[in-house]
Amino acid sequence: MPLATIGEDHIEAFDSVIHTNLRGAFVVLAETVSHISEGGRIIALSSSVLAKNFPTYGPYIASKAGVEGLVHVLTNELRGRKVTVNAVAPGPTGTDLFLKGKSQEQIDQLSKLAPLERLGQPEDIARVVSFLAGPDGAWINGQVIRANGGFA
Q: Which residues are catalytic, by number?
């Protein structure tokens, strides 16, 4: 993910992130709609970084806010089909992609941002997705679940 300040000299970085995260989500959601059966589940991915407003994260935050908007709209577009549409917004999670290029000091600092004082693990996020995809998630619709240990 290219980080970039909000300025004319970063339009290409902005376009790249929007193309990947927002347009990519739009294309996948559109394809899903054409194939999903009644009673199905659609789960998009956002990010809890939306709450932080970190400098240089403008394009990324804009793209993920757009994904959340698509979830809310698609929830209403699928009215009557008994399909749920939700998003999961992980906080800092100890994946290879997240850890790549970060020093141990940076990882330790990020681990302390959530009140639970640890990075999420992929299993933490998978459990939320599993809940939403399973029968217990049947009444959850049009929501963004912030699976982030309190990172807000």
A: 60
Helix residue spans in the chain (DSSP H) = 11-17, 24-35, 58-77, 96-99, 104-111, 122-133
What fold, for 8-145? Rossmann fold (3.40.50)
pLDDT tens, the chain, 152 aa long: 678 989 888 999 999 999 999 999 999 999 999 999 999 999 999 999 999 888 999 999 999 999 999 999 999 999 999 999 999 999 999 999 999 999 999 999 999 999 999 999 999 999 999 999 999 999 999 999 999 999 87
Q: Is 53 exposed, middle or buried (0-12, 13-18, 19+ CB in 10 A)?
A: exposed
Distances (CA, A) of 101 to 3, 20, 47, 104: 13, 21, 19, 10
Would the pTM of this model clear 0.85, i.e. be above it?
yes
For 79, phi and psi rounded to 5 degrees? Answer: -50, 135
Q: How many residues does the chain have?
A: 152
Describe the strand order of the beta sheet including 84-88 as a list of residue ranges. 41-45, 84-88, 144-145
